[in-house]
Amino acid sequence: MSPAEEEKSLPLPERWPRASKFALSACAAAVAELVTFPLDLTKTRLQVQGEAAVRRNGAAAGQAVPYRGMLRTAAGIGQEEGLRKLWQGATPAVYRHIVYSGVRMVAYEHLRDSVLGRSEDESFPFWKAVVGGMSAGAIGQFFASPTDLVKVQMQMEGKRKLEGKPLRFRGVHHAFMKILSEGGIRGLWAGWVPNVQRAALVNMGDLTTYDTVKHFLLLNTPLVDNCVTHSIASCCSGLVAAVLGTPADVVKTRIMNQPRDKQGRGLLYKSSVDCLIQTVQGEGFMSLYKGFIPTWMRMAPWSLVFWLTYEQIRRICGVSSF
Q1: How many domains does the chain contain in total?
Q2: Predicted pLDDT of residue 72
Q3: Which of 79, 140, 196, 198 could make an SS bond with 100 (beta carbons 3.0 to 4.6 A apart)?
Q4: Beta strands in 13-54 (DSSP E)
Q5: Are the beta carbons of 126 and 212 closer than 8 angstroms?
Q6: DSSP string of 234-286?
Q7: Phi then psi for 260, rounded to 5 degrees?
Q8: In a domain, 253, yes or no
């Protein structure tokens, strides 16, 4: 059998390992995103609630804040906008995770196995896991930033309608084209700096914690590589990711949702640092943790659904465990 014939006879994951892992992680992420999306919408609404910069600019003067806490926010969206609106912005969110999760998972495994390298005992040192997780998250989020921008802005459309403001977008395609026409290519990457910063922190919590906890359990406890180990590791990763990522997520959401001029420059914040300073000065330090409960309540099941699905899909397709 010739080398070409041998290659053709190999299973798909062995012929195109990175493309296969990209596709598998994208499928797992799409499932997790659809299951937990209402919590993401609730979190986004909470994060722009009571925004000090908006009050100073008079954009919401005299308006009462319609939602206060997580449960009242979610219930209010369902009652006032309809249950289907709890999934408003889900399409660009799924697009985002196809790109984001696909790139970050492939990048992390490449960094772990080929660039940074494991130790002689097959363990992956914690500092290398931190570097790999942050780098993979930053790379994945940079490529996915335009879809995240559209997701955040579409999630706020229901609130704009309740406030009597005109809707900005008719759908995902219209949102992309409008942002592109108003701000150019640069406009699609508006807010990419806090977005990448958040992704680096979240993945230091998610990828780093999952990989470290999973292999610690396998090396130091009687647990084997099964759903129990995956569940414990994913629960730990969801909590750490929420703690590390919420402040950057608040900044990212506000920068992405702010009005912009014709050149695509923000009218409320000059940069992520400016947004951070204005938020803390105007609303207090704990405002950086607005939406933490729904963030954590979303990240915990998201992480659980994603990692269990991803590990099982890999096993079914004959790809080695993560």
Answers
A1: 1
A2: 80
A3: 140
A4: none
A5: yes
A6: HHHHHHHHHHHHHHHHHHHHHHHHS-B-TTS-BSS-SSHHHHHHHHHHHH-GG
A7: -130, 155
A8: yes
Q: What is the DSSP letter of 180?
A: H
State residue 270's pLDDT score. 81
Strand ranges (E), 196-238: none
Q: Give burial (CB, 10 Å; 0-12/13-18/19+) of 62.
A: exposed
Strand partners, 266: 260
Domain span at residue 248? 193-290
Torsion-angle region of residue 319: left (phi > 0), alpha (psi -120 to 50) or beta? beta
> What is the spatial distance between Cα 216 and Cα 235, in angstroms, rounded to a whole number?
15
Which residues are bridge partners to 260 per DSSP?
Answer: 266
Residue 228, domain member (yes or no): yes
267 lies in some domain: yes
Cα gap 147→98, rounded to integer Å: 10
For residue range 190-227, list pLDDT tens digits in order. 878 878 888 898 888 889 999 999 989 998 899 999 99
Place of tokens 């001029």: 261
Contact between 251 and 200 under an 8 Å Cβ cutoff? The reply is: no
pTM for this model (two decimals): 0.72
Round to whole Å and give the CA distance between 119 and 126: 11
Residue 236 inside a domain? The answer is yes
Those residues whose C-beta lies under 8 Å from the C-beta of residue 122, and which sit 6 or more positions away, are: none
Contact 93, 48 (CB under 8 A): no
Contact 250, 291 (CB under 8 A): yes
The rounded radius of gyration (Å) of the Cα atoms in the chain is 21
Both tokens assigned to 275 = 């947004």
Please name which of 1, 46, 82 lies closest in space to residue 292, comparing C-alpha atoms: 46
Summarize pLDDT for 55-96 with one digit per residue, the tens: 566 554 444 555 567 778 778 778 877 788 788 778 878 888
Average pLDDT over residues 139-165: 80
Q: Is the pLDDT reported for residue 285 higher than 90?
A: no
- Is residue 239 exposed (0-12), middle (13-18) or buried (19+ Cβ within 10 Å)? middle
